[in-house]
Amino acid sequence: MEKKRVLLFYPPGALFQRGEDRCQQNIDEGSAQAMRACNDLGYAAAILLRDGYEVKLQDYQTQGDTYDTLIQDMETFKPDMIMMSITNTTIHSDVKVANDLKKRFNPIVVLKGALFFDPEQALLDLIDLSCVDYLIGGEIDFCIGKIANYCFKGEGKPEEINNILYKDENGKMVKTRFHVWDDDLDSQPFPARHLMRNELYIHPGTKEPMATIQTARGCPSQCVFCLTPEISGKRVRFRSPQNVLDEMIDCYDNHHISCFFFKADTFTINPDWVKEMCELIINSKLCGKIKFTANSRVRPLKKETLELMKKAGCFLVAFGFESGSDEMLKTMRKGTTVAENRQAAKWCKEIGLPFWGYFVIGFPWETKEDILKTKKLIMETDPDFIEVTIALPFYGTPMYETCKENNLLEKSVLGSDFFHSSTKGTMHLTIDEVMKLRKNILLSFYLRPKYIFRKMAECVTQPGVFVQYVKYGLKLVINLFK
Question: Is the pLDDT of residue 468 over 80?
Fold first, then answer.
């Protein structure tokens, strides 16, 4: 019997972090971001290969391909099923692609994205799902194999697959059980990196391939703007450090990758886990041969944890500082303080560990004074890199409800992103005023002579890195003034 074929893809178009359900960052208009590996497609591919399917994986957007290339693949590969990762911003164009492919080639159509996690019917009514068969709102590796096995092998029932919607015999999208998560992350196969073009996903400075490795899922925080606790749960589910190391060794030995992004909503939340992970790396054959970066919260955090991470090969840690206003941190339920933001930055400076600061402005309650406090914190802590985004009221978050109650929604959240807000602004500022403050912060930070000369000095022995810095600097200026 001929194997059934499945095409997994990101559609052609602008660059978005489609595998990052939490933020779905617009890469083209960010300051210094690079595309991360398409791990969601990689996990799906690994599961489907394990179950005996023929799989083709294509990241058309990052490959720079056109829609014609997608059509050619549909004609030559002839998939029985297609699965596309969507974003909040691109949903309408994504669905248009799915509908066109359904009408022309008639595959089973599966869409995956945070937008479909336990969605309201009112939201679904805004989207043309006439040609879509399944929506995955949960973690793809625990869904896609079961969907394929039902469709092609008659195994199980769609109503038994958690965190999805399926089209019933009347053409209605039916929800299954949401808000349930699988714990055994070690049992999942590693992403099928042999199907990825790993050279597309790079360290922004050196351009060397960077693999994304998911170390944990879930976040106990209650930030009003974040989707993670809703999608991945408020309980952190860890992979074992040994399982993570095994994946790193596989990347190093079989794919010649020595640079890693440890994907977790807060890598340092369990210092004992971090200690075991770092000690495993230090005592492994990878010691001194690899480097990694990771996200962190400023609470809980210890200087000793950062020191151990650096010893194990950490070259950059990213903090979600969010704001320089204690009032804003409290209102957004961040669970941290400005003093803790400063302390984390101070520790990084003391041990010589570069750090990235993420900041968000434009919250419903925010004043100009609050945003200027954020600017002050940025200048005082002096991160190596920063990004300042506009608070986005995703469906399913408390912030969305606040914006709706206070008549702050200018248009549908669908189609907006961190740089093209769906809000009118805050209760105190117009969206134009918020955008001008963002421009001012970024230009004030990145165009300081002190900062420019410091980065030039760091590049004395790495001229290629300097070229990359110039490239991202020009991109930043162009994006801010276009």
Answer: no
